[in-house]
Each structure stands twice: as structure tokens, then as C-alpha cells.
Specification:
Layout (H helix, E strand, L loop, with lengths): L2 H16 L21 E10 L8 E13 L2 E10 L2 E14 L3 E15 L2 E17 L2 E14 L5 E14 L4 E10 L7 E9 L3
Antiparallel strand pairs: 1-2, 1-10, 2-3, 3-4, 4-5, 5-6, 6-7, 7-8, 8-9, 9-10
Length: 203
């Protein structure tokens, strides 16, 4: 699949999802290595949020667009869209453990979320992530993600905590396949599963 075809398909699918009723939680979907300096990353991930406390599961999509700033620092814009849920944010990631086969990073971001019609929130999120490369093209990663939201025009506060195991496989020099499972650790956090592709335009 050429870069042009992949970019076109991802853009069409993401814009179509954005036109639907929407807001959602974020996904991690990357190893602890940051984007190479000057590289642009475009990623698209079909995602399911599993039902909790009698609620139905929700199918939707998450996506990221990022750029490498230095050899150990990148920034990414991120969005997630489900029926009745939408999420938009950005984060910065620092690659602080740089080993041959083991890496660690930390990310800090801000986001806006629509929890239900007419009820918006804003907040911050942070992720601590570690990854290991058992073979050349495969990375296994695991992390802890924490998000905290203030509901607009209300005294309500929401915290979400997830334990996130996943894998990243390099399909070609420019395309990675990723899959992860988010394990919700508190009442506000729903389990989720996500799978998709990340394209690097100038890797």
C-alpha cells in the first residue's frame, strides 16, 4: 500500500467519523520510542470501548498526527470519536531511557472531552511507558495512563486510570502495525481494545 493511498484512506475514514455524533477517551498506541526528528506520523486506530455498569460497548476510532522535534522528544495531536463521545487533545513525549532493546518514556498532555450532549470537560493526561524489543521488528510495550477532567459549569471531577499492554510491529520501513488493550483501573475508566496502523512520512 503506497503512502498516498494510506493517507487518503485514513483521512476519509477519520473525517467521516468526525461528522458523526461524538467524544471519547484517548489510546496510547505507540512504543516508548519517540518519532525521529523531522519525521511526521499519521496513525488511525479502530477502537472499541467495552460496556461497564450495564452500558453498551461503543465502536469508534482514534487517531494521532505527530512530529519528531529532537532525537528524544516529540509532539502529537490526538482525537478519538465514538457515538455520543468525542475527544481532542495534544501531548508531548520525552524518551528518557534509551537502551538497545529496552526504552522508557513519559508524556504529558491536555485535552477536551464531550461526555454527553451539552456536557463538556477539559483536563490533562499523563502516560508512563516502557517497551522491549525481543526481535528486530517487534516491540512489546506496557504503560500506565492517568487522566483528570473538570466538567464545565459544574463541581464534578473525573479521574481515569488505565494499565495498557500492547505491541508494535514494523510492517515496512514506513508502516507499523499496533494493537493494545486498555485495562480500566477505576470506576470512570472503561476497558478498551484498539488496533491499527501508523505511517511515517519521512522515516
Amino acid at each position: 500500500m503506497s503512502k498516498k493511498i494510506f493517507v487518503s484512506l485514513a483521512a476519509v475514514m477519520f473525517l467521516a467519523a468526525a461528522a458523526a455524533e461524538a467524544s471519547a477517551q484517548d489510546v496510547v498506541m505507540n512504543s516508548a520510542e519517540t518519532i525521529n526528528p523531522g519525521n511526521v506520523k499519521l496513525a488511525f486506530f479502530p477502537t472499541v470501548l467495552f460496556g461497564k455498569n450495564g452500558s453498551d460497548r461503543l465502536w469508534g476510532a482514534a487517531g494521532r498526527v505527530g512530529i519528531g522535534i529532537t532525537s528524544r522528544f516529540d509532539v502529537e495531536a490526538k482525537a478519538a470519536i465514538f457515538k455520543g463521545l468525542k475527544y481532542l487533545g495534544a501531548d508531548a513525549e520525552l524518551w528518557f531511557i534509551h537502551g538497545k532493546n529496552f526504552n522508557g518514556s513519559a508524556a504529558l498532555g491536555v485535552h477536551m472531552t464531550n461526555l454527553q450532549p451539552g456536557e463538556d470537560s477539559r483536563g490533562f493526561d499523563t502516560t508512563l511507558l516502557f517497551s522491549h524489543r525481543p526481535v528486530q521488528r517487534l516491540e512489546i510495550y506496557g504503560g500506565f495512563k492517568f487522566a483528570y477532567d473538570w466538567v464545565n459549569n459544574s463541581d464534578r471531577r473525573l479521574a481515569m486510570m488505565h494499565l495498557v499492554p500492547g505491541l508494535e510491529f514494523r510492517v515496512t520501513d514506513d508502516i507499523d502495525f499496533l494493537a493494545e488493550f486498555g485495562i480500566g483501573l477505576n470506576d470512570n475508566a472503561r476497558h478498551y481494545a484498539s488496533v491499527g496502523l501508523a505511517l511515517y512520512l519521512f522515516r
